[in-house]
Amino acid sequence: TDRSGLRACAEGMARAVGEFARIEAEGGPRLVLAVEAEPDASARNSRALAESLMFARLVGTRVLTDEFGHPAEVTAGLMERHLGTCLDCCHSAVEFEEPGLAVELARMGGPLGKIQFSSALRLEAPAAHPAARAALLGLDEPRFLHQVTARAAGEFLHLADLPALRDAVADAEGPWARADEWRCHFHVPVDLERAAGLATTRDHADAVLRTALARPSAEELHVEIETYTWNVLPESAGAPTDGAAVIDGLEREYRHVLDLLGA
Predict the structure, then answer these.
(1) Strand, helix or coil at 260?
(2) pLDDT in tens, 43-102
(3) Rounded to 5 degrees, what are φ and ψ at 242?
(4) Has residue 219 got a pLDDT over 80?
């Protein structure tokens, strides 16, 4: 998060761009390093990521000249061609981003290399729904990070994981207990409107994809369905009990996304 660390990151991205440019010049495919925002990262949302990539492009032009021998007049174009964004719909929803703005910011960061079509968990008025609140806290498991965010009286709150949320809501008068809405970075099957007794952010992912399709740009659109949590989901969230159930769940996800593309 410090300036020297961000500069080192930017230089590393530029070296990747230099190699990608070499590969394409030698007849290979065009490759794009598509960087992804994640809650609580140094680039936690689409705006912060776009700013980071703008900084990386500035730093990168020098690296491409000094280390790869490219003339100064072509380096900016190489950075813009090979360094871009991966827009993760789950992460964007957890950050309470407006879908259209998320797509716009993603394209400001360079080519939109990929949309990861993914869905998070959400709970409106948590104080009024103790069972749903307990259901979310019960999803704590050690393998993955489950960052939590909230809107409370116009303020944006965030915590690193579900155990921190359990501690925060112990104060019944605190901002977390009285929040308007919680969202949690817990990937759930993308076709579901509800999972584990909670609402999902499926509508956000649908809106991101529709926006990207409605505002075409020069790059090819890559869409990846991302639910990697099948083996940690509870039964209430559509957890499969055998291999056939996994296949059924994956098919439902594909049908949902293909229907959006078909429309």
Answers:
(1) helix
(2) 999 999 999 999 999 999 999 999 999 999 999 999 999 999 999 999 999 999 999 999
(3) -155, 180
(4) no
Q: Provide long-range contacts, Cβ within 8 A and 24+ apart, for 94-98.
A: 94/39, 94/120, 94/147, 94/149, 94/183, 94/184, 94/185, 94/201, 95/37, 95/39, 95/44, 95/45, 95/46, 95/149, 96/149, 96/151, 96/156, 96/183, 97/45, 97/46
Query: What does DSSP say about strands 112-117 and 223-225: parallel, antiparallel, or unpaired?
Result: parallel
Question: What are the strands, taking DSSP E only, across the chain?
Answer: 33-36, 83-88, 112-117, 119-124, 148-152, 155-159, 181-188, 194-195, 198-200, 223-225
For 148, phi then psi, to 5°, come to -125, 140
Q: What percent of the chain has pLDDT over 90?
A: 79
Q: Whose structure tokens read 């440019």?
A: 21
Is the alpha carbon torsion for 52, 38, 150, 190 positive or negative? positive
Q: CB within 8 A of 44, min separation 6: which ones?
A: 37, 38, 95, 158
Residues 103, 205 contacting (CB under 8 angstroms): no
Tell me the C-alpha distance between 263 and 257, whole Å: 10
Asked if 159 and 187 touch (Cβ cutoff 8 Å), the reply is: no
In the structure encoding, which two tokens stand for residue 127, read together?
A: 């104080």
Q: Are 63 and 18 in contact (CB under 8 A)?
A: yes
Describe the strand order of the beta sheet including 83-88 as a list of residue ranges: 33-36, 83-88, 112-117, 223-225
Closest of 28, 13, 7 to residue 78, by C-alpha: 13
